[in-house]
Amino acid sequence: AQKVTQAQTEISVVEKEDVTLDCVYETRDTTYYLFWYKQPPSGELVFLIRRNSFDEQNEISGRYSWNFQKSTSSFNFTITASQVVDSAVYFCALSPGANDYKLSFGAGTTVTVRA
Amino acid sequence: DAMVIQNPRYQVTQFGKPVTLSCSQTLNHNVMYWYQQKSSQAPKLLFHYYDKDFNNEADTPDNFQSRRPNTSFCFLDIRSPGLGDAAMYLCATSRDNERLSNQPQHFGDGTRLSIL
Predict the structure, then answer these.
(1) Rounded to a whole number, what is the distance in Å from the CA of A35 to chain B's nearest CA?
(2) N or C: fewer beta carbons within 10 Å in chain B?
(3) A96 prior amide bond cis, ω within 30
(4) What confidence tens digit (pLDDT) does each residue in A57-113 have?
(5) Contacts for A103 with CB less than 8 Å, ≥ 6 apart
(6) Chain A: residue whose CA lies nearest to B101
């Protein structure tokens, strides 16, 4: 069975602060995929990143960066120099190996960035 | 722009009155999903279509059914909505085959369903 844990329910920061969202996962599969999605107040889920279990390289995309540590089963997400538009619920999700593409979501972390 | 479109954005129905939510996509993706998301919770998968094959999650109530008449459209039918079915319903699509596995799911804006 797969399980995704996002320990932080809510995080509140002031604009320009960095914020890190933790994600820990459990799976018995050797091949799996990890995702982060953003859900702004308008409701749609926006895909941010997909990472497969064989690629442990960290990734940076603008102000977003991701730290994948297989040894600790973690896939953490950092927003650098946060902005008010970053306010949203962020979901970490896990998809098992090939031929099983269903997503297991974490409970989500609500990020509030104050001006 | 290619996208996943859900109509309506807001739907109000009466307790016990059947309701249908619709989803269309211009991405030509072969997999379509329906999720239920209650307030402050993660999305929960109800069922999905892999091409024409319907796959129901074990804990999806019988009250929920789906139709996919063609690649582009998928419908969620709630036969007798109860108060507990009030939620946001999200449609998603993905392309999945042997070469492209576990691709990201693309979500629509959702339909927020209220039950009176």
Answers:
(1) 8
(2) N
(3) no
(4) 888 889 999 999 999 999 999 999 999 999 999 999 999 876 667 889 999 999 999
(5) A35, A93, A94, A95, B43, B45, B105
(6) A98
